[in-house]
Amino acid sequence: MTDQSQRIKLDFNNVLRVGAEHGLTEQELDAATEQLRQAIQAVQQRRQGGDLRWMELPYADTGEIEQLAADLRDQFENFVVLGIGGSALGNIAVNTALNGPFYNQLTGRKTPRLFVLDNSDPEFNAGLLDVIDPAKSVFNVITKSGSTGETLSSFLFFRDAVQKAVGADKIKDHFVLTTDPAKGPLRELVNQEGFRSLPVPDGVGGRFSVLSPVGLLSAAVTGIDIKQLLAGAAYADELTREADPWQNPAALGALIQYLLYGKGVDIVVMMPYAQRLKDVADWFAQLWAESLGKKLSRTGETVNVGPTPVKALGATDQHSQVQLYVEGPFNKLINFIRVEQFAEQGALPAGYADMDAFAYLTGHSFAELINAEQEATAIALTEAGKPSMTHIVPEINAFTVGQLLYLLEVQTAIAGELFGIDAFDQPGVEAGKIATYALLGRSGYEQQRQQIEQALGQNNPRAVV
Ligand code: PA5
Predict the structure, then answer these.
(1) For ligand 1, what atom is nearest to the CA of residue 433?
(2) Which residue among 70, 320, 402, 459 is buried most deeply as judged by most CB within 10 Å?
(3) 278 catalytic, yes or no?
(4) Which domains, ranges and CATH numbers included, belong to the chain?
């Protein structure tokens, strides 16, 4: 695929425009070219060594997923994803981007409503039962490890609701378990009880799994063209395996953020100017934070490194966060996402022509307005000496969304190389999971519980007011 018209571009002119103190110069980028070339090479070498299997997802066969999706689509009114982190955020991002924010409210829709429950909040879980009939719902339980407490508790909760609605012998018909192909408690259940299942391919970590069965089943059930999603990712693969850093948008995106981090710009604000891409910012926040926030370097030194991702939405957050970004500290890079062609222009009708506040809007469209607002924010930031860059998306479709997700994943992998850390583990998350098991009395975690109790026993009574 070489349809240049669908290519996402990275414009970082504003990083250069703000100059050396808070931005970057071409000389600084040039000086890092060799380091960047090596980082690109290191990622591709790890891939060739079989290490980074998420990079092969664009080329996977989707037949089984499409077949299952077609069966489920005909049988159920509601498709509910139960998962958390990388086992939920991609589903939400793809759905909002391609089905739109009002998908569940659409009338005359031929595909099931989609709900993604990614929290153990009791009111959130119980609240779903106020709007769905479990007898008309199928639940996709997604957990790679098969043991995440939040997800398994949701499984128990909705399994019970399904049992009450349809009886114990029909429970299985209402669940699809997406988990490790060979191991883990959920895989055991699949083997013992015969639940339908899909694999989270071996070697594909949660936050890099959106283009695997983790993200593809809910997309296919709701009618998204998953082949196009993967075709877009394959195109991004073509662009981001480019060895020349100056032709590689993922590499330059990673380098800019790495070099700015060295100048104290340690926050990246992901700010799409498109409601449909709002949840891509959420997905990116996890990808960036969990991959790059690390205590140890690859050589075992303590580095406590990691840029902080912040999610924002244009134009909404112009009236919330942008004041801080323009006038606050010089510690942020704003990463805009701009859509060139919206599917709807939203022409603004004429009205109140005798009032200045309305007159200038007439003859324009929402599409023009939101893009002018993005440009205006970028100008204000540049004038204030704050760096920004923009991913320019030609239009929002399955191809460009697949391309964007894969591009940002490769950017993360290359950034991991530049920062010298392992972007693919998450010991900090595991620590939280272990503490939860210990607090709730899971067997095998007695020692951790003892340690926690000891630490909590040292509470200073004056420290709670
Ligand atoms: O990216 C990751 O690895 C994590 O965010 C996981 O996706 C998250 O912790 C959920 O894990 P699991 O899929 O094993 O339930």
Answers:
(1) 9
(2) 402
(3) no
(4) 4-49+228-419 (3.40.50.10490), 62-224 (3.40.50.10490), 427-463 (no CATH)
